[in-house]
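Tokens in:
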């Protein structure tokens, strides 16, 4: 073995392909092929040999440059929050919370950011405190996409205005991307992508430009999409999808 490989090899550890398979990356055979193809690194060292054993508790594994979450005790889920639900795990006013939607799960989840009571759509929940912290911290600038039905006829010029930026009472704000989906006399449908996590930011922004929001749905958070989830439904995020999410925030 090379010196670099020796630094990560643990004689009484678990075979790397077994750790990968247990993490849900693929079958044992598929994981062996990934290793031999040079797609897997451990603690920054590319591994192409099948005999390598590692300590799954301490090793940091990447597949195609994306982190592999090998700690089975850490769970992250995508949840479709219906309108009328508060974005907390418990509420002292007795309102329905995110916890009510996942009451069948035994884990203790943290919610990643918030959606206001009337906004519906994608919200992430995780038992991984560090991932939750990074996903909500402004410095990582994780993009989020919303589809809104707004009052009035929106013109294409509004997109240029919002991409250039406007000023709200708590400071300037601009969108990363604006798409006019549908324009009618009484209301229009727009798609907005931005990385700000400020409170009710889409609603406040659209009201400022004269098109108050009538309905608002978040459809994407980072690389995670709402997909086929219906209100109240959830799904576990794993494999390369989770790896890509972790990569977004430097994990």
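Residues out:
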């Amino acid at each position: 073995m090379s010196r670099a490989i020796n630094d990560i090899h643990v004689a009484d550890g678990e075979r790397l392909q077994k750790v990968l398979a247990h993490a849900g990356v693929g079958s044992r055979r598929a994981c062996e092929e990934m290793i031999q193809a040079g797609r897997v690194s451990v603690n920054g060292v590319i591994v192409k040999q099948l005999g390598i054993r590692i300590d799954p508790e301490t090793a940091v594994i990447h597949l195609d440059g994306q982190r592999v979450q090998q700690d089975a005790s850490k769970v992250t889920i995508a949840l479709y929050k219906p309108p009328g639900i508060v974005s907390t795990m418990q509420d002292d006013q007795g309102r329905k919370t995110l916890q009510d939607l996942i009451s069948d799960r035994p884990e203790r989840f943290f919610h990643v950011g918030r959606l206001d009571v009337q906004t519906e759509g994608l919200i992430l929940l995780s038992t991984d405190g560090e991932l939750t912290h990074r996903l909500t911290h402004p410095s990582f600038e994780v993009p989020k996409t919303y589809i809104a039905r707004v009052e009035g006829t929106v013109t294409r010029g509004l997109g240029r205005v919002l991409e250039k930026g406007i000023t709200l009472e708590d400071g300037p704000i601009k969108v990363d991307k604006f798409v006019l989906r549908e324009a009618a006399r009484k209301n229009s449908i727009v798609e907005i992508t931005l990385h700000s996590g400020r409170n009710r930011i889409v609603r406040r922004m659209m009201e400022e430009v004269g098109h108050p929001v009538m309905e608002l749905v978040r459809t994407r958070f980072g690389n995670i999409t709402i997909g086929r989830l219906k209100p109240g439904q959830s799904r576990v995020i794993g494999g390369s999808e989770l790896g890509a999410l972790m990569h977004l925030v430097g994990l």
